[in-house]
Amino acid sequence: MAPFAPLMGCWRGAFDGNAAIHDERCFEPMLEGRYVRDTHFVRPTTYGGISAGGVRVEEGALVFDAHTYTGADGATQRLRSRWTIEGRDRLVVVSEREIEGAWRPWGRITYTRAR
User: Is it the case that residue 46 has pLDDT exceeding 80?
Assistant: First the structure.
C-alpha cells in the first residue's frame, strides 16, 4: 500500500471546465493498513455508484485499469484513469471513457489537500 501513503487524508478537487462541480474525497487505511478506503462525494450532484478494478504504479503515477462503473441507476460505462501525485498537497486525476471501442477524454480533476 506504499504508493497510496501520500494520499492519506482528505482532498478537494475542481473539475476542469466546470468549477461549479467539485469532488471531496478522503483516503483512510483499513484492516491494519492492508487496504485503502476512498470515499468521495461529487457536489452539488446526485452522483453515486460503484466500481472495482486493478491499479498499478507506472512512471510514478497510479494507473487504474479499465473497469466497468455502475451508476446508482444501473447504467454502466467503461472507465480508466491516471492519478499523478504532484507533491504533498496536489493530485491530478485524468480519466477516460470508452465509447464505441475507443478511449476518449472524460474528465480532469486537480485536487488540493483539504486536511
Answer: no
By CB atoms closer than 10 A (0-12, 13-18, 19+), residue 93 is: buried
73 secondary structure, DSSP code: T
Contact call for residues 22 and 12 (beta carbons, < 8 A): yes
Peptide linkage before 6 cis (omega within 30 of 0): no
pLDDT at 71: 86
**2-113 — its CATH code?**
2.40.128.20
Domains in the chain: boundaries: 2-113
Within 10 A of 17 (CB to CB), how many other CB atoms are there?
A: 8
- Average pLDDT score over residue span 36-56: 85
How far apart CA 64 and CA 32 sit, in angstroms, is 23
